From TrEMBL:
Database matches in SMART domains: HATPase_c (SM00387)
Molecular function via GO: phosphorelay sensor kinase activity; protein dimerization activity
GO cellular component: membrane
Keyword annotations of the record: Kinase, Membrane, Transferase, Transmembrane, Transmembrane helix, Two-component regulatory system
Origin superkingdom: Bacteria
Protein name in UniProt: Histidine kinase domain-containing protein
Every Histidine kinase domain range: 432-620
Sequence intervals crossing the membrane: 7-25, 31-47, 54-74, 86-109, 121-140, 160-181, 193-213, 219-238, 250-267
Gene3D superfamilies referenced in this protein's UniProt entry, alphabetically: 1.20.5.1930, Histidine kinase-like ATPase, C-terminal domain
Length: 620
């Protein structure tokens, strides 16, 4: 245990001791005891676990209420040594915990930060008002005038007490309203956490000022205790401050201790001796610890499984597999265990065309979808058919834990899909070439052969017919050359072979520029490019320009090709109308992306009403 934790829990222990001593001497104001025993354990927990920021020290400030309780009890004994000084100490310490809990604490829960810069003046005024009220309450003489720190000359300042109290009441009300507004605007688990805190805070504000209107002993105690109780509920049921594991351990040990004590007493009562009771406790401690651990998990997590156990099993499964399907299967099993859903679907890749899918359970309507992300990249989604208050948080934690494995699975599945598309495209291209050669060039060459035979046969007997056949042969050869050029053009654009990448792009731009569209072309270097990279960059430029002219009606376009990041980058921009929202990529966009990704490059398309930018990068 660190010094920080030891001091925090020491304050809690001292508070308990002071309240106990004060109760033995003479029971005092129960509000002070409620503040001390209700808030100091919460403050000690937050400080020792470094949670909640300034909320922990503010809760631990309630230890002054224990000092007030004990000092008031001691000061009630007028004949005891230094009893009057105890009265003065009680007058000096009773106000800060109560007032800070009703103002500053409401501003800072749950993370210890103000909701925004506009609340800084409110917090400053609250601190000043608390200090002023504390000083005036301690230095202005009371009716019995026993406090040695009271100054009679300051009695006229009692007139300022009411405005200070009014200011603090207004700040408390504003802080409570601000907490209600923050609760209404929050989403997800934070909203449920704030909802419990909000209920407790409103009741605490009422309890702090209730004794001024209802002169009953302890009238405000239930209201003041409502805030730490509601915070405890938020910690138990909605994992506020990430308390699930420590609380489960504490609850398990508490249940185990109680069960062992009951077992010991029962065996002693039945046998009349302690030896069998000790043996029974020693034998039962391990199975009881295991069973009560599961019971504590059910108490804390309701119908869901213990997140720690689910995460541990998921980690073991992920360590045993590297196959994308196996990784998705492990995540699917963990999802079912974590949220007890009757149906779960894990998609890797886009929703329209997922790379891989794993389903668990019988298909049912999906009520909750949680995206799977890793380092800002969306990899897929988890879809379940049942949604409760903690399901989204549980799924978010699973997605975070499995992010790296899912990213590897996504890349492997994408690579597999790319290889499949590449093989399919290659076979389609081979089939096209085979068809073109068989149906186009093959018959032409066969016809030339027959015509040559006929011309040879007619050469001696009919020279005129031979000359006609030779003319026909010439036409057939021309047709064969046209077929060959068509096949070659399908393999590689001839303008690239004839002009090179730079001049080919400029020629494409010139053809569109002839229609009245201004196009700026800037090319800073293309010498180290491979043939495949040249084809991909050229087709990206031509397709982007064609799409802009057809669909965006721009008044200006620009092409910029330059070396970038150990590769080459081409950027095509236009000032047209941009892509429609929720548009689906067509054949042109899909072809551009596939050509670039085949070369391990990247293609990004940024569209807005002011224009579209297509950027492709291909490594050297």
């Amino acid at each position: 245990m660190s010094v920080r934790s030891a001091l925090a829990w020491g304050v809690f222990g001292l508070s308990c001791a002071l309240v106990g001593v004060g109760s033995v001497i003479r029971p005092g104001d129960p509000v002070d005891a409620a503040l001390a025993l209700g808030f100091t354990p919460l403050g000690a927990y937050l400080i020792s676990h470094r949670k909640g920021g300034a909320v922990g020290p503010l809760c631990l400030l309630a230890g002054l209420s224990a000092v007030t309780y004990a000092a008031g009890a001691y000061g009630s004994r007028a004949g005891w040594p230094a009893a009057d000084w105890a009265v003065g100490l009680a007058a000096l310490t009773w106000a800060p915990p109560l007032l800070a809990g009703c103002t500053l604490l409401l501003l800072l829960v749950p993370d210890g930060k103000l909701p925004g810069p506009r609340w800084r003046p409110v917090a400053a005024v609250a601190i000043i008002a608390i200090v002023l009220f504390t000083v005036t309450a301690a230095l202005i003489p009371a009716d019995d005038a026993r406090s040695p720190i009271a100054i009679e000359a300051l009695r006229p300042l009692q007139l300022f007490t009411l405005p200070i109290v009014g200011t603090l009441a207004a700040i408390a009300a504003v802080s409570a309203v601000g907490l209600v507004v923050r609760t209404a605007r929050a989403r997800g688990p934070l909203r449920l956490q704030l909802l419990w805190i909000c209920v407790g805070a409103v009741l605490a504000v009422l309890g702090a000022f209730l004794p001024a209107f209802v002169p009953l002993p302890g009238a405000g105690v239930p209201f003041i205790l409502a805030l730490p109780i509601c915070v405890a509920v938020a910690m138990l049921r909605h994992d506020l401050y990430d308390t699930s594991l420590p609380l489960r351990r504490f609850l398990t040990l508490a249940l185990l201790a109680g069960a062992l004590v009951l077992l010991y007493l029962l065996v002693v009562r039945l046998t009349g001796t302690t030896i069998p009771a000790t043996v029974a406790v020693a034998v039962a401690v391990e199975p009881l610890h295991h069973w009560l651990g599961r019971a504590a998990g059910r108490i804390l997590y309701g119908g869901r499984s213990d997140p720690q156990e689910v995460h541990a099993r998921l980690a073991r499964r992920l360590a045993d597999t590297s196959d994308p399907a196996g990784i998705l299967a492990a995540v699917g099993d963990a999802v079912v265990e974590a949220v007890r859903t009757p149906y779960a679907r894990i998609e890797l890749g886009g929703h329209d065309e997922p790379l891989k899918i794993v389903e668990r359970g019988r298909p049912a309507p999906v009520t909750l979808a949680v995206p799977l992300r890793f380092q800002g990249e969306e990899l897929g989604a988890v879809l379940v058919s049942r949604e409760s208050s903690g399901d989204r948080r549980a799924l978010d934690q699973l997605a975070l834990q499995a992010g790296a494995a899912l990213a590897a699975a996504h890349r492997a599945a994408a690579l597999q899909r790319s290889r499949l598309l590449l093989v399919t495209a290659r076979e389609e291209e081979r089939r096209r070439i085979s068809r073109d050669l068989h149906d186009g060039l093959g018959p032409v060459l066969a016809g030339i052969g027959f015509t040559v035979d006929a011309a040879g046969n007619a050469l001696a007997a009919n020279p005129d017919r031979a000359r006609g056949l030779l003319t026909q042969i010439r036409a057939q050869v021309h047709e064969a050359g046209t077929s060959v050029r068509g096949v070659v053009r399908g393999l590689r654009p001839p303008e690239l072979a004839q002009l090179g990448l730079a001049r080919a792009i400029e020629q494409s731009a010139a053809e569109l520029r002839a229609g009245g569209l201004p196009i700026d072309v800037t090319i800073t270097g293309t010498s180290p490019l491979t043939a495949a990279a040249e084809v991909a960059l050229y087709l990206v430029a031509r397709e982007a320009l064609t799409n802009a002219v057809r669909h965006a009606t721009p008044t200006h376009c620009a092409i910029h090709l330059r070396p970038a990041q150990k590769g080459f980058e081409i950027t095509v921009t236009d000032n047209g109308s941009g892509l429609p929202p929720h548009t689906h990529p067509g054949t042109g966009l899909t072809s551009m992306r596939e050509r670039v990704e085949e070369l391990d490059g990247t293609l990004t398309i940024q569209s807005a009403p002011s224009g579209t930018t297509v950027r492709a990068w291909i490594p050297q």
